[in-house]
Each structure stands twice: as C-alpha cells, then as structure tokens.
Amino acid sequence: MPSDSLMPRSESFNARVRGASHIDFKTATTGVAAKAMRNEISNLVKSVQDPDTKRAFDIEMQSFFFLFTRYLSERARSQELDWEKIRSPEEDKIVPYAKLPTGDAKNLNKLAVLKVNGGLGTSMGMTGAKSALEVKDDMTFLDLTVRQIEHLNTTSRVDVPLILMTSFNTHEDTLRIIKKYANQQLRITTFNQSRYPRIYKETLLPCPKAADDDKKHWYPPGHGDLYNALYQSGVLDQLLAEGKEYLFVSNSDNLGAVVDERILQHMIDSQAEFIMEVTDKTKADVKGGTLIDYEGQIRLLEVAQVTSEHVEDFKSVRKFKIFNTNNLWINLRALKQIMESSEMELEIIVNPKTTDDGQAVIQLETAAGAAIKHFRNAHGVNVPRSRFLPVKSCSDLLLIKSDIYSLEHGQLVINENRMFETTPVIKLGDHFKKIAQFQKRFKKIPKIIELDHLTVTGDVYFGRNVTLRGTVIIVANEGQSIHIPDGCILENRLLSGNLNMIEL
Questions:
Q1: Which of 448, 447, 457 is nearest to 423 (CA)?
Q2: Which of 201, 392, 443, 447 is catalytic?
Q3: Which residues constitute the domain of residue 430?
Q4: Which of 29, 231, 340, 370 could disulfide-link to 346, CB 3.0 to 4.6 Å?
C-alpha cells in the first residue's frame, strides 16, 4: 500500500508538515554527513607538512569532496534511471567501421596516445603493475605498446607521444619499467591519477586519518578520473601547447587497441569531439557498459547503475547489441573547455568493498566513457572484435600466448592458418586462476590453431608440444590429477577421472 494514502486527505497543516519533513530529514542527514566529511578532510590536509604537497593534496581532496557531496544528494533524491526511458541509440549514433574513410597519415602529428595504466593484476594473483606482465614472446603489455607507437612514428615520420596514467599502486613500477625505453623513437609522459580515501559505509567517514596513512585506506577512483587528472597534472595544457588536438585512450591490457588512422580521419571529418569504440556483444561480454539514448541524449550505461530487477534485461544481447571497449577518442580543445567550465559530472559508480578486518567500505568511482554526454557530435563507431583483446584472466592469457596470434611490430595478428574468423572459447578452472599456477601447469603453451573450445577443471598439467583440436574438455575429479604427456594430440576428447593419459 503506498504510504501517501495514509495521509489525511484534507490539505491540513498536518499533511503538509509530514510531507516536507521527510525530505528535510534526508537533506539534513546529507548536510550532517557532508559537514562531518569536510572536517575529516581538513584534518587530512592539515597532516601534510610540505607546502607544495599540501596544495596539490588539498586540490585532490576538494575534487573528492565534490564527488562525495554529489553522491549524498543523489542518494537523498534516490536518483535512478527510469528504465522505460532507455532506448537504443539512433542509427546515425553508431557508425559501422566499414563505412569509415581511408585515413591520412599526416593527421597523426595531431594525435597523442594515452594508456590507462593504474591496474594491478590482483585478480590474476599479481602484486605489481599489470602492464609489466609478459604476454607474448617475452614482451610485456608496455613493451608491445611502445613497439607499436615506435613503428608508427618511424614509418609515418610523425611524433605521436605516449602518455601513461598510473595510480599510486603502479606509479613506481611504471617509472622503473620505462627507464629502458630512454633511447627509443618515442616520448613517454607519465602522470598519476587521483588517490581518494575509502569511506566507511556505516559512518560515511574516511578510512585514513592522515595523508600518509597505509595504502589500503585509499583507492584510485576509476578511469573516469582521467579528465580531472589530465587537467590538474598540467599534461592537458602541455599537449595543447605541442599542437596535439586528439587523444586516443585505451586500457593498457587491451592488446587490440592500436592507433587507427581511419577512426581519426572520421573524427576530423565528422567534427566529433568524442568517439567511443563499441563492438558487438557476445555471451562473454554481458556485463560490458553499453550506449543508450536517454531523453534524446547519448549516454553510457554501466551494469553497476542498473537496479537488480533490470540486470537480466541489461545483459540481454537482444536489447543491447553492443558494448563499450573503452577505446575512446577525445578532442583535447573541447576537453579543456569542459574542464574549465567545471561541467564534467560523470555518473557515480558505488563500488562496495570489505577491508582486511571485515569492515564495509565504499569507493566512489566513475567511468571514462560516461563523459560522452558532455561532448558535441559524440557517437560510437562499431569496430571489429580484433580491436578488443583484453587480458583479464589466465584464460585470456593462454589465447594471446598461443599460436593463434603472432606479433608484427608489437601488434597482434591472427594466424593466417586459422580457418575461422572467431577465436576459440577457453575456460580454465580455479587451479589456473593465478599467474604462478598457470605458468607451473603449462610446460609450454599448447598448439590451438584448430581448437574451437577448451574447458579445463581440477588439477591438470600440460606437457610440451601438446596439440588441442575441436572441442576438448578435461576434468580432474576432486583429489585426482591429470598429466597430459609431451607431444600428445587431443581432438574432440572428453577426459575425466584420474589419468596419466598413457591409456589414449
């Protein structure tokens, strides 16, 4: 029964007060929480001695406080998207890659490339910067990116700089790694994204008590922080001063995100200030953010913004056919204008976490693609799947390391002997979750050029020069193990139980 039906019907004094006080209470609690947070933040700022560090930290905390107050007021208004108003974008808002013009290499002099390099490979059991992981031919994500851009600069005789946005988790690692590129045909700039305090869920107060408190009390606020960090660090002005007009942004673990002259040309021709590369959804991508039309405006919708009753709808490939690859093309002058008029308000994603001692905390984050609504002529380009090759798990890593791909100038190229356009589906179980286990269980990466599907669960080890074809399913039961011997060929096989495989 709706609560308003309990109200007196007459426009009595009682009814008016009761209606207003509910809102006032919410606004009041918002005010109290904001005030308490402001006090805590000013204490954090006071804890910094050095004047320059203090100034920078103060600016960072003001940005955090702005995000926090937006979170409070949205929560008070319980602002949720109206599901009924969500439409698929108009056809002209998603341009097929095949329709793009051929590019002109001269445009590349106006381009800079930025890699979001703040991630730790924690889900894969890593402790350092994920981009330092060796993925192919003894080369890391960063090596491959550097190789690609060097090749671009030397063959097209242009000067495309590489910019790395690190987080406080990966900054030291990254600086150490890029020392080895000092003599290359490439300029590398690094800047650090923001470091925000985690918030206790119960009290809405910050976890850290001082600016130099343990790392675990802080978090990098997602890749949506890119714009603020680029602006505050001075890197945006530096790029504009060098005559750069466009920025190509992608995640450092997406090996498909190479510079594409056709997309750049299309951006210039269509005078779009922002382009998001999207690609067709498969069953593996049901959680990827998607572009929608909301009240006539193009917007990014992330799964974290969807209420539980609509999540299945969101994941359906029928309703939302594409998803965001996080390869973004941005007009730098337009970005500076938006930042200077402080209009960059991105949807807040609340990321709940639990601390080591079991306390519930929240992280307020934003997504870079959400900025699409702030730019003129912004739209999506539907790109081939080959531009989205992220390595999020050891299953992805197996595919990249295998003979399905070879490297050309740091770029992954599908082996021409592969009969199908698609890559095999690979599902490795929990025993392969961490990098160290993965490396121990594969003496050498199997040959999978003719593989369609591989599922491995349980305690399984692969010898050298193993070939997998068709559909291969290997299941070692609880307490048992399977060792696949050197030189073994498995084609359309299901193995289970406890085998040393001599029986085949």
A1: 448
A2: 392
A3: 394-497
A4: 370
Co-location of 231 and 364 in the same domain: yes
Helices H / strands E in the chain, number of each: 11, 26
In a domain, 324, yes or no: yes
Residue pLDDT, tens place only, 182-228: 877 788 999 999 999 999 999 999 999 999 999 999 999 989 999 99
- The Cβ-side half-sphere exposure at 274, using a 13 Å CA radius, reads 21
State if pTM tops 0.85.
Answer: yes
Residue 277 three-state SS: strand
Write out the binding residues.
130, 193, 222-223, 253, 392
Domain endpoint, select from 76, 105, 121: 76
Report the distance separating Cα 14 and Cα 8, nearest Å.
8
Map residue 456 onto helix, strand or coil. strand
Respond yes or no: is residue 201 known to be catalytic. no
Task: Enumerate the known binding-site residues for substrate.
Answer: 223
Of the candidate ranges 63-72, 413-422, 470-479, the one whose mean pLDDT is the lowest: 413-422
Q: Are 187 and 299 in contact (CB under 8 A)?
A: no
